[in-house]
Amino acid sequence: MTGQLMVKAEGVHKSYGPAHILRGIDLEVRSGEVFCLVGPSGSGKSTFLRCINHLERIDGGRLSVDGELVGYRQKGDKLYELKDSEVAAQRRDIGMVFQRFNLFPHMTALANVMEAPVQVKGESKAVARERAERLLDRVGLGDKMGNYPSQLSGGQQQRVAIARALAMEPKLMLFDEPTSALDPELVGDVLDVMRDLAESGMTMIVVTHEMGFAREVGDSLVFMDGGVVVESGHPREVLGNPQHDRTKAFLSKVL
Ligand SMILES: Nc1ncnc2c1ncn2[C@@H]1O[C@H](COP(=O)(O)OP(=O)(O)OP(=O)(O)O)[C@@H](O)[C@H]1O
Ligand SMILES: [Mg+2]
User: Fold this and answer.
1) pTM of the model
2) Which of 56, 148, 227, 251 is the most buried (most CB within 10 A)?
3) CA atoms 218, 223, 224, 228: torsion sign
4) Among protein residues, the one whose CA lies closest to atom 3 of ligand 1
5) pLDDT recorded at residue 49
6) How deeply is 223 buried, as exposed, middle or buried, from its count of CB atoms within 10 A (0-12, 13-18, 19+)?
7) Which residue's CA is the nearest one to ligand 1's atom 9?
């Protein structure tokens, strides 16, 4: 991977009250990379994604996306907090897909995908619709555009959620266990969409327990535990030849 730096975390700390969750995260994600984040429950994976996406503010360290500090502007050696409107502009470039799909229940698949470009970017409905149709086609739902979420399977809803995130033309996509709420037979279609996205060159950070996906599609893998990076490397190296006892213990449970 020789792309530009897309995400750089240096000593990132985050606490919730007295609970010190992220305890100095250092990592780098390059443009075009599929970066897999694995670790036990409670290790801080979702918290870290939420920091990248401005849903949480970090308490220490530095975090930048595409060369810009998340939530701050640096002048000389001083940091200034960005205004809400500036934060919103930064967040617009980052797509996020959650375990639960969070589609708007009263809108069709097509309307769900058109919503943000029209409402947030002020795009014309015609342009938004054209793109939404193309994206729904791409995720294999060309024949379900008029369905409401309740008329779609979990896997189909998740693919709509991916199309919805892509409609904002993000430069970075964050996936937080996108398949873990799905019935096993629906997981494959969602992973296929993610694989297709990876092949198209999208930069992706993927929290997942799907080690097969990580091994085949991932360019790097980080194992996190207790709010720190324990081990990182190429997925095949880390999964095939883990160096740390905590990594070995975790992998013996999920592989
Ligand atoms: N808003 C919050 N307020 C207080 N504590 C929180 C909050 N969000 C998360 N935590 C705590 O932070 C810790 C890390 O949570 P996080 O959701 O980041 O873990 P995770 O690695 O994503 O776990 P999982 O694999 O179960 O999703 C947990 O102990 C959790 O209880
Ligand atoms: Mg989580």
Assistant:
1) 0.95
2) 227
3) negative
4) 16
5) 97
6) buried
7) 47
